[in-house]
Amino acid sequence: MDVFIRTMYGDPPPPKRGKVGESTVLAGELLLGVVSAKQIAETADELSSGTTPYLTHDLAVSVALKYFKDPVWIPKLGTAQLMARVTVLEWFKEGKVARLFVESFEDVLYKTYKR
């Protein structure tokens, strides 16, 4: 995990600077309101308390990905995943999310939803 963090954020990695509240809102938008704000906030808090020094949009992508790949949520998120892929790509083009997060997000969604 340390190698991944250093690849994403440099060596040494910066201190945590992602805004959890904003990440929660962004993840909710990616999930098109299908998952409750409370569940999303709990996931964002859990992920942000780990060792990865997420940026705001990186955290939002990671939170959303947790639900997009969860078998319980897959049947409910088919439409949302299409819109989320477009949004995350736009964020990448705007420099808001790291390339490795985008690549992982797209790879997981492609394999999960076969689209």
Shape designation: globular
How much of the sequence lies in strands comes to under 5%
SSE string, helix = H, strand = E? Answer: HHHHHH
What does the main sheet amount to? Answer: none
Helix content: 55-70%
Low-pLDDT windows of residues: none
Which assembly state applies to the chains in this document?
A: single chain
- Helix and strand content put the structural class at mainly alpha
Could you tell me the mean pLDDT?
88
The total beta strand count reads 0
- Termini separation: 29 Å
Number of domains: 1
CA radius of gyration: 13 Å
Our count of helices gives 6
Account of the 3D structure:
The mean pLDDT is 88. This protein is mostly helical. It has one domain. It is built from six helices and no strands. The protein has helices at 2-9, 20-30, 37-48, 56-68, 78-93, 99-113.
Short description:
The chain has 115 residues and is mainly alpha-helical.
Task: Based on the model shown, name its key terms.
115 residues, mainly alpha, 0% strand
Topology:
Blueprint: H1 2-9, H2 20-30, H3 37-48, H4 56-68, H5 78-93, H6 99-113
Helix pairs in contact: 2-3, 2-4, 3-4, 4-6, 5-6
